[in-house]
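lol forgot to send this yesterday, sorry. struct tokens for the thing we talked abt
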């Protein structure tokens, strides 16, 4: 049943233009995905809702947009060069690589540094070589001449861009503790095991906040952020039975973290292992990380102070003292949020012996707010009027005009992509200047004047 739901989501995403396989006409590039017309609207709406809640509506958080390429010293200071790796074993026959813990699931007695030839490949009859360290950062080179170019990494997290701008922010905005920086952007990790549709990919987008606090306030602020972020998903419509918090055990904390709690969603697929916060853990089927909220302590600022030679301490005017703030980091995945909202909104019901599929997305997230449909498309004056209404509404909402089918077919299509309202123009409209407005969830219809449509939608949607 659950696996079946996942198949339905993947199929809907392709059929209606939410998410396509990357480079599909070339046979695809494994685990890359492209967002189509509805997918990009949904994704943008999720990012906008996050930005609104965390930057626009708060007085203590400033937005940023940092470069993907950073000085290589950043990744030495951050610990990524030294610590950000998987231990993998390569098959001598099919050359596939497997994480040690994948192999351990089949051969529990394996220890790293064991002998060659003791473990069969998980996918063919070849043998696995010794475990080797494999850094998860994507390498590239900067500079036009091969031999003079320098090694650069595509950032594996957006966080570091905010840490290295700490001084710039203090000098330009003079914020007082506690305050935060927020950023949405792409990050890259050379994952060995990817999969479950868009859940784990090598290229992904993060929504991250770095919230600087006095060390003695860290525990309290961590608890506040866990609540705030948990409620954000609920407020946007995720069902409470599908969302939970999970505190990390000491053994799965990242090298920099004092504490970390994940917000998990009950996905309709199995998640046997997880890489989050660089820790590994076996999971019950389904529950997997949407977002992690960590207390990163003063690790990052101290490291960057040491490696850059700059003083990155905060100066307290009142107490006349300098210290390194602690950092609370709520870090969420945009692509995972898109997937969770899609799955949670998927709804099937029987209407007159037929199955109606509806994406019951929250009004702020629905890719299209209103569709304008002519009842008789072969009557030019009806189509013209519908197009004109659509054009007027486009100034205020994501609105579309669609005349490519019978009205039943058009409604079904809009329900499947989560369009909040359908406005139908018919013969009667030409006489009484009224249209039919249909509600996506209740399917109830109301007849209102054309001149009232915009106000009606503003009242319901904003
Ligand atoms: Zn093999």
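and heres what i got for the seq, position by position
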């Amino acid at each position: 049943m659950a696996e079946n739901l996942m198949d339905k989501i993947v199929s809907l995403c392709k059929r209606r233009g939410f998410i396509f396989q990357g480079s599909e006409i070339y046979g695809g590039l494994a685990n890359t995905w492209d967002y189509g017309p509805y997918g990009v609207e949904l994704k943008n709406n999720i990012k906008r809702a996050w930005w609104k809640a965390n930057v626009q509506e708060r007085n203590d958080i400033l937005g940023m947009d940092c470069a993907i390429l950073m000085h290589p010293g950043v990744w030495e200071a951050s610990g990524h060069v030294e610590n950000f790796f998987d231990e993998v074993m390569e098959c001598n026959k099919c050359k596939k690589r497997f994480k040690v813990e994948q192999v351990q699931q089949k051969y529990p007695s394996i220890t790293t540094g064991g002998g060659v030839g003791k473990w069969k490949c998980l996918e063919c009859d070849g043998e696995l070589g010794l475990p080797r360290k494999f850094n998860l950062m994507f390498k590239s080179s900067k500079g036009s001449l091969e031999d003079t170019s320098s090694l650069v990494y595509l950032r594996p997290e957006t966080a570091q861009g905010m840490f290295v701008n700490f001084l710039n922010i203090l000098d330009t905005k003079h914020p007082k503790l506690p305050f935060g920086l927020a950023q949405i952007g792409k990050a890259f990790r050379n994952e060995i095991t990817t999969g479950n549709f868009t859940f784990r990919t090598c290229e992904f987008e993060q929504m991250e906040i770095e919230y600087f606090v006095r060390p003695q306030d860290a525990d309290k602020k961590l608890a506040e952020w866990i609540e705030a972020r948990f409620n954000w998903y609920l407020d946007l419509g995720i069902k409470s039975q599908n969302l939970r918090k999970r505190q990390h055990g000491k053994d799965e904390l990242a090298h920099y973290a004092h504490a970390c709690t994940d917000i998990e969603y009950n996905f309709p697929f199995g998640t046997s292992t997880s890489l989050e916060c660089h820790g590994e853990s076996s999971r019950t089927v389904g529950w997997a990380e949407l977002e992690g909220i960590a207390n990163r302590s003063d690790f990052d600022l101290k490291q960057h102070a040491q490696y850059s030679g700059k003083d990155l301490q905060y100066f307290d005017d009142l107490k006349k003292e300098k210290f390194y703030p602690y950092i609370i980091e709520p870090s969420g995945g945009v692509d995972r949020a898109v997937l969770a909202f899609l799955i949670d909104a998927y709804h099937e019901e029987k209407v007159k012996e037929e199955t109606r599929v509806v994406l019951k997305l929250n009004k702020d997230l629905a890719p299209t707010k209103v569709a304008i449909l002519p009842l008789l498309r072969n009557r030019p004056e009806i189509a013209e009027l519908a197009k004109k209404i659509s054009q007027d509404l486009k100034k205020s909402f994501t609105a579309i005009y669609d005349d490519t089918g019978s009205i039943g077919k058009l409604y079904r299509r809009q329900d499947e992509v989560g369009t909040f309202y359908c406005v139908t123009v018919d013969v009667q409209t030409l006489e009484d200047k009224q249209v039919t407005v249909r509600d996506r969830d209740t399917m109830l219809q109301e007849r209102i004047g054309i001149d009232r449509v915009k106000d009606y939608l503003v009242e319901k949607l904003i």
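Residues 85-135 form one domain. anyway ping me if u want another try
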